[in-house]
Design goal:
The protein is built from 14 helices and 13 strands. It is of the alpha/beta class. It has 2 domains: about 5-45 and about 275-365, Aspartate Aminotransferase, domain 1; about 60-270, 3-Layer(aba) Sandwich (Aspartate Aminotransferase, domain 2). A 7-stranded mixed β-sheet has the order 2-8-7-6-5-3-4, sandwiched between helices. Helix 3 (about 50-60) runs antiparallel to helix 11. The chain starts with 8 loop residues before the first helix and ends with a helix. The structure holds pyridoxal-5'-phosphate.
Length: about 375
């Protein structure tokens, strides 16, 4: 039987998420022994050692269900960020909190607004809920505040902003976000998705928890996937006032975060030494990357995240394919509407150098 007709119309409209190729797949398919992945904005130094130590000790406890209130992780986040515990959202990655947001607020036909390109899950999850997605082009690779505000109508429920933006790595500064929050009509939830906040160097990056404290209708999202290196464990968190969180809690399934992930997250957040090393590595790698790209005469978008968007001035898909054959996985940005751009993780000095020399070889062989 063909089940297509039985499937929800919204599902037919979905374009599935295309993840970065796993290292093992590339090794297997191309017969390469050494492969580096610079395609999923992962941590260049691996996971937080404190998180690993705590998880190893905890492994014998996994026969139990998690504490569904996630008391310890919640208390820890509440005390670090100085907010009430019931302002804290926890999810299987921040992806799951995004899902909770659309499940909670979107009725079919409601509008959601976000930039294009921006994090693809806004589109996928909103489409799944039968929302009408209003996509506002970035202006010079940066969120266009006026454009976003103009796109809001009385049907708009949610406005998503990834800050830093994925795939450009650009940020909105405090003053711009404040303008947006002042001007956005009442009843629109603004999601400030700060998956890469720990990598930001600019001083005027928003202290977005203050917006929550000041009573703006904001949900702030963070993750343990990037700066803490726990992407495979899937744990994200967020903050909003209890007027909002109380509804999001209702759609959460029990035990949505695994006990192991919660334990690892709790330990990771205390791993200041690791976080410091990660940031310094990314910041140094970024400078090395900029210098290398300039030498190659390539334009890039200055980034505040752990990845950089590079214009290779030719079909990026072909460049990515050639790099793959040299054992380097990067992300061609055609699906983001940027056909000549690559998004590349900023790794350690060694991986940045390997990437740059492979890129040079590829560009020479194709010029
Ligand atoms: C902007 C942004 N938000 C959220 C996420 C989701 O992260 P996770 O679900 O691993 O917490 C990502 C992942 O790449 C991202 O780029």
């Amino acid at each position: 039987m063909d089940w297509s007709e039985r499937v929800r119309k919204a599902v037919h409209r979905l374009r599935p998420y295309v993840p970065g190729k796993p290292v093992e797949e590339v090794q297997r398919e191309l017969g390469l022994s050494e492969v580096i992945k610079l395609a999923s904005n992962e941590n260049p130094l691996g996971p937080s050692p404190k998180a690993i130590e705590a998880s190893m000790k905890f492994l014998w406890e996994v026969y139990r269900y998690p504490d569904d209130s996630y008391y310890r992780l919640r208390q820890k986040l509440a005390s670090i960020y100085n907010v009430p515990p019931d302002w804290i959202l926890l999810g299987r990655g921040s992806d799951e909190i995004l899902l909770h947001i659309v499940q909670t607020f979107i009725e079919p036909g409601d509008e959601v607004v976000f930039s294009t390109p921006s994090f693809v899950m806004y589109d996928i999850l909103s489409t799944l809920m039968d929302a009408v997605c209003i996509k506002v082009p970035l202006r010079d690779y940066i969120h266009d505040i006026e454009g976003l505000l103009d796109a809001v109508t009385e049907r708009t429920k949610v406005l998503f902003i990834d800050n830093p933006n994925n795939p450009t790595g650009t940020i909105l500064r405090d003053r711009s976000v404040k303008t947006l929050l002042e001007e956005v009509p009442k009843g629109v939830i603004v999601v400030l998705d700060e998956a890469y906040s720990e990598f930001v160097e600019s001083q005027d990056y928003p202290k977005s928890l203050d917006y929550v404290r000041e009573g703006y209708p904001v949900i702030v999202l963070r993750t343990f996937s990037k700066a803490y290196g726990l992407a495979g464990l899937r744990v994200g968190y967020g903050f909003a006032r209890s007027e909002i969180t109380q509804h999001l809690f209702k759609v959460r399934e029990p035990f949505n975060v695994s006990s192991l992930a919660a334990i690892a997250a709790e330990a990771a957040i205390d791993d200041f030494e690791f976080l410091d090393r990660v940031r310094k590595t990314v910041w140094a790698g970024k400078r090395l990357m900029y210098r290398g790209l300039e030498k190659l005469g390539l334009q890039y978008v200055p980034t505040e995240a752990n990845f950089v968007l590079i214009n290779v001035n030719r079909p990026a898909k072909e460049v990515a394919e050639a790099l793959l054959h040299k054992g380097i996985i990067v992300r061609p940005c055609e699906p983001f509407g940027l056909p000549t751009h690559l998004r590349v993780d900023i790794g350690t000095q060694e991986t940045v150098e390997r990437f740059l020399s492979a890129l040079k070889e590829v560009l020479i062989s194709r010029s």
